[in-house]
Amino acid sequence: MDLKSNHASPILTDPAPMSKSRLGLYSGLFPYSPPGAVFSSGMYLAVPRKKPIPGKLEDVRSSGWLDAMKSSSPPRKKMTKDFIVEVPSDDNGDLLYRSWMLKYPSALSSFEQITNQAKGKKIALFLDYDGTLSPIVDDPERALMSKTMRYAVRNVAKYFPTAIISGRSRDKVYEFVGLTELHYAGSHGMDIMGPVRNSEFIDDHQNCIRSTDKQGKEVNLFQPASEYLPMIDEVFKSLIEITKDIKGSKVENNKFCVSVHYRNVDEKHWSTIGQCVQDLLKDYPRLRVTHGRKVLEVRPDIKWDKGKAVEFLLDSLGLSERDDVLPIYVGDDRTDEDAFKVLRERNQGFGILVSSVPKESKAFYSLRDPSEVMEFLKSLARYGAS
Ligand SMILES: O=P(O)(O)OC[C@H]1O[C@H](O[C@H]2O[C@H](CO)[C@@H](O)[C@H](O)[C@H]2O)[C@H](O)[C@@H](O)[C@@H]1O
């Protein structure tokens, strides 16, 4: 496969203009300007952020939110040996999936191709958590990683610098993963604990401070949205209050963002939950919403996402100005697309989309579910050891 070719991708990511300058990346964390296009032609729908017409309240049903909420995760679940996986809902699903894989080949069957590309290069590995290392389950508190997955991650990290980039709070994802040898970015990259490096830019940045990790080791702590903390706390409390009567809803505080889960809410109430969030955010123009898997994610409207986190971590690891580095990012949801996009734009490395249903993506390869992710990590570790 020609990794330089571009899929015509109608994927949604938040339409943030991407800076070409690497050093410029961390400056100017200003809110997005209002975007124009709102729809993509794939399974994803953009979060519409049109200017409200004065005197007319925007409604979740008419603004595209509800469609985005409905398309945010495949419907059915089945048990495999180790994982619950989401599967296509009809018999045509497998056929569609196999034709989709022509565009996004399996990273397992393309493994030799991947290692050919890695020859003479240093792999840097970035892993999303939910839906990638842990199965999607109804209760976010129970999205535990299996011991075998933990072992696979630990093993691969012996050979390649490895970071977890999650929408969860950094503390929470660390609690789930529990491996001290990794780097962690929580809150969609808005809370990064990375290695200390004397990079001019990192040292100068006001939101980047020296700190110590749980083992007392000196680290760089980068929190570009630190000023939003009180606002996020306030919004978290309000969201708990205004959704308390919606059965099955759950609000999760991810430190620099808040997740409003509707996986366990009856579909007929999804518009209510969407409307609650939309109405509340009218009072918070400095916040925005992104759509994850049956979750609305309220976050600071700054130019920072998982893609920027990848670039920051590459810089922290001393790998950003080198062309002998192959970054690989494995993730399953829409917020991971920002990272896939960055790797495409850098023309360096690639994304691997974890999905059991066809989706438009900026990734180059695919894996069906966390059990395939584990196989991939094991293969990578074997390659690292060889
Ligand atoms: O960036 P990630 O690590 O993928 O985190 C994204 C969100 O993941 C979690 O929610 C998702 O997984 C839950 C557990 O399987 C599931 O119940 C939920 O429906 C999914 O959306 C997490 O709870 C969120 O806070 C993260 O933002």
TrEMBL record:
One of its GO terms (molecular function) is trehalose-phosphatase activity. Removes the phosphate from trehalose 6-phosphate to produce free trehalose. Gene3D superfamilies: HAD superfamily/HAD-like. This is Trehalose 6-phosphate phosphatase. Keywords: Hydrolase. The keyword NAD does not apply. One of its GO terms (biological process) is trehalose biosynthetic process. Its EC number is 3.1.3.12. Coiled coil: none annotated. It comes from Kingdonia uniflora. It catalyses: alpha,alpha-trehalose 6-phosphate + H2O = alpha,alpha-trehalose + phosphate. It is an enzyme of class 3 (hydrolase). PANTHER family: TREHALOSE 6-PHOSPHATE PHOSPHATASE, TREHALOSE-PHOSPHATE PHOSPHATASE F-RELATED. Belongs to the trehalose phosphatase family. SUPFAM superfamilies: HAD-like. Its cofactor is a divalent metal cation. The keyword Hydrolase applies. Pathway: Glycan biosynthesis; trehalose biosynthesis.
